Amino acid sequence: MEFALNKIDKHWDNYRSLNQHMNDLKRKVMELNGMKEDTDSRMSAELLPRKKLKREVQIWLENVERINGEVQSLDGKIGESSRFTRGFHAEDVLKRIREVEELIQQGKFQDGLVVDDPQWIGQVLSKTTLSGEGAKACEEEIWQCLMDDEVRQIGVWGMGGVGKTSIMKCINNRLVEGMGRFNIVIWTTVSKEMSIAKLQKDMASKIGVSFCGDEDEITRAGMLFEALSRKRKSVIILDDLWQKVPLDKVGIPESSTGSKLVLTTRSFDVCRKMSCRAIKVKPLVEEKSWKLFSEKVGRGILNIPEVELIAKKIVERCVGLPLGVITIASCMKDIDDLYEWRNALKELSDRKKSVNGLEEEVFLLSIGLQCNKLPAVADQL
């Protein structure tokens, strides 16, 4: 009889204290959720490229979500209970209070939220500001193709000096700095004198594959293929292709779901042969060419009417190639001698006649070499 009375007394004590305990639980849950909001803000600041959340932080966030759901469920059960059965939930409330208090202590993370991510591969590249709305439009078209699962291979093509590499450097940096959809970005320059061995070694260094030095081409291709096949969320950028690259001989897997191949080339035929979604980079229109030239050469020089007239003829001969515009503007920057401007125009005209059918960029690059300005702008090819 005494035992039964004690049980009843304890039950009524639990009933009377339940509201207080429940209020304590809700206050502590509110404190915990405040910590979670602060943690979310810290994550936005700390979760940079090459970083990932600590496993203990991931577990803590999962436990916060779980305890919120359990407290909400418990609150609902208590609300539906009768006066007699409410007291039976007291132990559950006290248990949740202890769990929430533990999570509050665990959630301080004084040593930070993130650690280095060894799975991250990519390098931010130096770049120049894109010239003209056309270049920006091309960049966005390439970006949309990268985000489209149906597009596996992308070919960016156009004349030398039109800005293909500059656009792709912007794309590379957006991928590296964002690092959301892709966590591996590999940039490799191929160039006209393509060497499969050199291309293999360059790619191997980017993804951490070590060659002993005595492997043949087929063995190196197999090693690269095996390593790259494991890296599903990847973008491989092959810059400055002059001919079709035999991907199997290099060791590059055919693009599949989660991976992309992007190439830049002067030839639409290369894009076609490599089954790419072709995106053409067009030269600048005359108005944009003149604006770019004016910005680079200095507007003060162009206030001289005779110089401005010659400068416009020079810009016409650049045929909308940003590299040519920038190269020649750099050569003529701050030069106010009318004779030198006339000589530059004559030099351009003579050289253009001498190349006789070769691509416009050939004669523009020769001018760049003569001015010793080419190294400063060569990265815009």
UniProtKB/TrEMBL annotation:
<keyword id="KW-0547">Nucleotide-binding</keyword>
<dbReference type="InterPro" id="IPR042197">
    <property type="entry name" value="Apaf_helical"/>
</dbReference>
<dbReference type="InterPro" id="IPR050905">
    <property type="entry name" value="Plant_NBS-LRR"/>
</dbReference>
<feature type="coiled-coil region">
    <location>
        <begin position="15"/>
        <end position="70"/>
    </location>
</feature>
<dbReference type="GO" id="GO:0006952">
    <property type="term" value="P:defense response"/>
</dbReference>
<dbReference type="Pfam" id="PF00931">
    <property type="entry name" value="NB-ARC"/>
</dbReference>
<dbReference type="InterPro" id="IPR002182">
    <property type="entry name" value="NB-ARC"/>
</dbReference>
<feature type="domain" description="NB-ARC">
    <location>
        <begin position="140"/>
        <end position="299"/>
    </location>
</feature>
<keyword id="KW-0175">Coiled coil</keyword>
<protein>
    <submittedName>
        <fullName>Probable disease resistance protein At1g52660</fullName>
    </submittedName>
</protein>
<dbReference type="InterPro" id="IPR027417">
    <property type="entry name" value="P-loop_NTPase"/>
</dbReference>
<keyword id="KW-0611">Plant defense</keyword>
<keyword id="KW-0067">ATP-binding</keyword>
<dbReference type="GO" id="GO:0043531">
    <property type="term" value="F:ADP binding"/>
</dbReference>
<dbReference type="GO" id="GO:0005524">
    <property type="term" value="F:ATP binding"/>
</dbReference>
